[in-house]
Amino acid sequence: MAQEILTTKNNAVSTLLAGITSGALSVSCQAGHGARFDSPGAGQIAKLTFFNSAGLREIVHVTARSSDTFTIVRGQEGTAALAWNAIDGMQQTATAAFLNGLSQLDRTETYTAVKTFSSSPIIPFR
């Protein structure tokens, strides 16, 4: 069964409530911040990126959220599962895999199927 990737959320950002190991399968954000993020249901995932001030990043799939606690699948899209500290960041945002799944129109508004993004897209102004 294919998974539906939930859309991104504006301002869905928080920090970890407590540190987690590289093998942890759940994480909690700051109290009350969970409502900023999607709550995936059956067959759905949300993309979440952990980050810190040293520039490290890890993409995880959120398979469920209960209040401020997320059930996660670690090390997605070529990132490694890392240990994270309390107050490291977490954000629900578009990833390359999310963008690669989108159908696009070219400049003449002709459907051209799926585009491939290898990193952050550069969208020209018209």
How are the SSEs placed, and which strands pair?
Blueprint lengths: L3 E2 L7 E3 L10 E3 L15 E8 L5 E10 L2 E8 L12 E3 L4 H5 L2 E3 L5 E4 L12
Parallel strand pairs: 1-4
Antiparallel strand pairs: 2-7, 3-6, 4-5, 4-7, 5-6, 8-9
Keywords:
126 residues; mainly beta; two-stranded antiparallel ribbon; single chain; disordered C terminus; seven-stranded mixed β-sheet; globular; 9 strands
What does this 3D model show about the protein?
- With about 130 residues, the protein is mainly beta.
- It has one helix spanning about 95-100, and strands at about 5, 15, 25-30, 45-50, 55-65, 70-75, 90, 105, 110-115.
- Strands 1, 2, 3, 4, 5, 6 and 7 form a seven-stranded mixed beta sheet that branches. Strands 8-9 form a two-stranded antiparallel sheet.
- Strand 8 and strand 9 (about 110-115) form a beta hairpin.
- The protein is globular, with a radius of gyration of 16 Å.
Can I get a quick summary?
The chain is mainly beta and 126 residues long. The chain has one helix spanning 96-100; strands at residues 4-5, 13-15, 26-28, 44-51, 57-66, 69-76, 89-91, 103-105, 111-114.
As residue ranges, the low-confidence spans are 121-126
Number of strands: 9
User: Radius of gyration over alpha carbons?
Assistant: 16 Å
The biggest sheet amounts to: 7 strands, mixed
> Count of helices?
1
Helix percentage range: under 10%
- In percent terms, what proportion of residues is strand? 25-35%
The residue-averaged pLDDT reads 86
Tell me the overall shape. globular
Q: Give the end-to-end Cα distance, rounded to a whole number of Å.
A: 39 Å
Order of helices and strands: EEEEEEEHEE
Structural class: mainly beta
